[in-house]
UniProtKB/TrEMBL annotation:
<dbReference type="Pfam" id="PF07992">
    <property type="entry name" value="Pyr_redox_2"/>
</dbReference>
<protein>
    <submittedName>
        <fullName>FAD-dependent oxidoreductase</fullName>
    </submittedName>
</protein>
<feature type="domain" description="FAD/NAD(P)-binding">
    <location>
        <begin position="6"/>
        <end position="294"/>
    </location>
</feature>
<keyword id="KW-0560">Oxidoreductase</keyword>
<keyword id="KW-0274">FAD</keyword>
<keyword id="KW-0285">Flavoprotein</keyword>
<dbReference type="InterPro" id="IPR036188">
    <property type="entry name" value="FAD/NAD-bd_sf"/>
</dbReference>
<dbReference type="InterPro" id="IPR023753">
    <property type="entry name" value="FAD/NAD-binding_dom"/>
</dbReference>
<dbReference type="InterPro" id="IPR050446">
    <property type="entry name" value="FAD-oxidoreductase/Apoptosis"/>
</dbReference>
Length: 383
């Protein structure tokens, strides 16, 4: 059997995990295509760079055993099994794993002053290492406790608000929802985190930004209720969108085994993958550990369908996350975006996320061990 050339687009969690699962085999040659002029890094650690607690070089991501091309994939041609790169080069593949990740959701295009504020370094997303370095430098440039508006209140925004508040900065937390974070944590946990936000920082829940206007010594942020906030910096963490090469551009739709329908040996994993299956419906998880798990699963499916490995079965999310928010450890495992929840009747505060008669995720506050014990019990129907 001749060697299969597997190309992996993306050098983040999913891409590097897939490459590790394929490494060391004589029957597979692996090529990773990263992004032009970008050093791969662990994205889950960029918050520490933004807070000034970690140096950028400390979060570089070790590369697995594979050929590495620093170039950006612009177009995949499934008919010719060829990838066109930004440099003008092309690379052929036998099997392909798309793991190009995500990009930050931005402000609405019609928000007055937003473009100017971004160019001035006053309005910054928290998504990439470059973003984190810019935030760190902007905070340091204030030379005093900074007035910081944070737009969004999901996992990243909540942890950022907590960390910067603990450093003595004055935080205004803005969220479009009156109870932010339900889609991430489930309503019971989100309600408790919202109460902690309200007790610790200035909150504007149920509000949107309608304008960002840099002035000489400060920036004015206009909210939709007429409130004007005077701040030094605006950080936005409004979630992510899939980032894929053409012909997809947005998310790459996969089935429950991470296969792209109708394209032969093509798979997608991590933040770029939009899952459409009969189990959870339509869903997407953009988190480092889950991205790594998906990347490994995609590689195992590739091997199986080439007759080189066992069938890993359908993908079921079991990965864990943690976040320290105002001195409390928020943790979760599996798919915690499901709206159906119930609080488990135990001493620990644990919320179970259910799909019919099946627990598909668990989250909790200061209950890491108890939450993590659910990892291997997920996706099993109650008798």
């Amino acid at each position: 059997m001749s060697a299969n050339h597997a190309v992996i687009l993306g050098a983040g969690a999913a891409g590097t995990a897939a490459a590790r699962a394929l490494a060391g085999r004589d029957d597979i040659t692996t090529t990773i295509v990263g992004q032009t002029d970008e050093t791969p890094y662990t994205r889950m650690l960029i918050k520490g760079v933004a807070y000034g607690l970690a140096a950028p070089e400390l979060i570089r991501l070790p590369m697995p055993q594979a050929d590495f091309i620093a170039d950006t994939a612009e177009y995949v041609d499934p008919e010719t099994c060829e990838i066109r790169l930004a440099s003008g080069a092309a690379i052929a593949y036998d099997s392909l794993i798309v793991a190009t990740g995500s990009r930050a959701r931005g402000l609405d295009a019609d928000v007055p002053g937003a473009e100017h504020a971004e160019e001035a370094g006053i309005l910054i997303a928290l998504h990439s290492l470059e973003d984190a370095v810019r935030i760190r430098e902007a905070v340091r440039a204030c030379g005093r406790p900074a007035r910081i508006a944070i737009y969004g209140a999901g996992l990243t925004a909540s942890e950022t608000a907590s960390a910067l508040q603990a450093q003595g900065h004055r935080i205004s937390l803005i969220a479009r929802s009156r109870i932010p974070g339900i889609a991430t944590f489930g309503r019971p946990v989100a309600e408790r985190i919202a109460a902690d936000h309200q007790a610790s920082v200035t909150t504007y829940f149920g509000r949107t930004i309608k304008g960002v206007h840099p002035e000489t010594d400060a920036t004015v942020v206009d909210l939709d209720d007429g409130t004007d906030l005077i701040v030094d910096l605006v950080i936005f963490a409004l979630g992510t969108k899939p980032l894929a090469p053409a012909p997809w551009r947005e998310g790459v739709v996969v089935d429950d085994r991470l296969r792209v329908h109708g394209l032969g040996s093509v798979y997608a994993a991590g933040g770029v993958a939009e899952h459409h299956d009969d189990y959870l419906g339509t869903w997407r998880i953009d988190h480092w550990d889950d991205g790594a798990a998906q990347g490994t699963h995609a590689a195992q499916m590739l091997l199986h369908e080439q007759g080189r490995g066992e069938d890993p079965g359908p993908y079921r999310p079991r990965s864990a996350y943690m976040a320290m928010i105002y001195g409390q450890m928020i943790s979760g495992v599996g798919y915690t975006g499901h709206p159906d929840t119930r609080v488990e009747d135990t001493e620990d505060f644990i919320v179970l996320h259910e799909q019919g008669d099946t627990v598909v995720g668990a989250s909790g506050i200061d209950a890491v061990g108890a939450v993590y014990q659910w990892s291997q019990r997920l996706h099993e129907a109650r008798s």
